[in-house]
């Protein structure tokens, strides 16, 4: 569901400017620090979120700079799916965040960049290994 490409355009918290490619993250791929950095990147305009609606299907997208490796993030996730001939949809509308009334829904993003990351396990051809959360405005 995700596709990323790019190379590091700026230093990310996981490595200093001008350093070699960040190692594939195996020790703490889901560490909260990646979500914290992603939040700062959202505020700084280094990451952006959106939801596109077409044909009754909603797709959330996150684009910008990876909080760990600095490569380009271009992540998308379909929030609905057509179910059978009735064309009704199944999906994340009406999720917990909608029930909370804030209009935002959490989205777990995986970096799927094409940058080179030493230590990437065999059989995995992309990504730096991290996951982070952002909140996407559900009525966007």
Architecture overview:
- This protein is mainly beta.
- The chain has one domain (32-137).
- The chain is 13% helix and 33% strand.
- The chain has two helices and seven strands; from the N terminus they run H-E-E-E-E-E-H-E-E.
- The chain has a three-stranded antiparallel β-sheet with strand order 1-2-3.
- The chain is globular and about 40 Å long.
- It starts with 31 loop residues before the first helix and ends with a strand.
List the helices and strands and how they pair.
Blueprint: H1 32-44, E1 47-54, E2 57-65, E3 72-78, E4 80-83, E5 88-91, H2 96-100, E6 104-110, E7 131-137
Antiparallel strand pairs: 1-2, 2-3, 4-5, 6-7
Overall pLDDT, averaged? 79
Q: Order of strands across the widest beta sheet?
A: 1-2-3
Question: How many strand units?
Answer: 7
**Largest sheet composition:** 3 strands, antiparallel
H/E element order = HEEEEEHEE
Would you identify the regions where 5 or more consecutive residues have pLDDT less than 50? Answer: 1-11, 93-99
Quaternary state reads: single chain
Keywords:
140 residues; mainly beta; 3-stranded antiparallel β-sheet; two-stranded antiparallel sheet; 33% strand; disordered N terminus
Summarize the structure.
By secondary structure, this protein is mostly beta strands. The protein has helices at 32-44, 96-100, and strands at residues 47-54, 57-65, 72-78, 80-83, 88-91, 104-110, 131-137. The protein is built from two helices and seven strands.
